[in-house]
Amino acid sequence: MFSNIIYKSELNKNNVKPNQLIETLESIVTNCNKKNARINISGLLIFYKNNFYQWIEGEQEQVDTLFNWIITDKRHSKVTIMKHNFQDFKMFEPHPMKLICSKAIAELLKLDPKVFEARSDEELEEISRNPSDIIPNFSKFQ
């Protein structure tokens, strides 16, 4: 049985200036992929309209420890758990942490394309419009 936490947060514009956004996203993706792979966490991070939506999954102890670290990260604020579930399988098993972002952001990233995916604003809008449907929305990005 695996634990998952799905949360939403806002980019902390006091700590991440507009000219630092791409570098910050690159750092998050690079560091999370390394760390999450070591502790057997998988998941997906969606960045859209200065909001983060993240699904992290793995053994409960590792998920809880990681989430406790996440809530202290000053790059974002207003961390809100949207769902905390248990499941028999990992939805995002091949990805220690994959980034989904708009095409405009993706064009600026200097990351290996295996760790991020560009999507249209229309596809990403669904998450910001209907946060209560977060699980079906996340499943679109497997």
Structural features, described:
With 142 residues, the protein is of the alpha/beta class. It has one domain (2-139): Alpha-Beta Plaits. The protein is 34% helix and 32% strand. It has helices at residues 21-38, 60-70, 103-106, 121-129, 134-139; strands spanning 2-11, 42-48, 51-58, 76-87, 98-102, 116-119. The chain has a six-stranded mixed β-sheet, sandwiched between helices. The protein is globular and about 40 Å long.
Rounded average pLDDT: 92
CATH topology: Alpha-Beta Plaits
Biggest beta-sheet profile: 6 strands, mixed
Rounded to the nearest angstrom, the distance between the terminal CA atoms is 20 Å
Percentage of residues in helical conformation: 25-40%
Which stretches are low in confidence, meaning pLDDT under 50 for 5 or more residues running? none
Number of strands: 6
Key features of this structure:
142 residues; alpha/beta; Alpha-Beta Plaits; 6-stranded mixed beta sheet; 34% helix; globular
Structural topology:
Blueprint: E1 2-11, H1 21-38, E2 42-48, E3 51-58, H2 60-70, E4 76-87, E5 98-102, H3 103-106, E6 116-119, H4 121-129, H5 134-139
Parallel strand pairs: 2-5, 5-6
Antiparallel strand pairs: 1-3, 1-4, 2-3
Summarize the structure.
The protein is an alpha/beta fold and 142 residues long. Helix content is 34%, strand content 32%. It has one domain: Alpha-Beta Plaits, CATH 3.30.70.100.
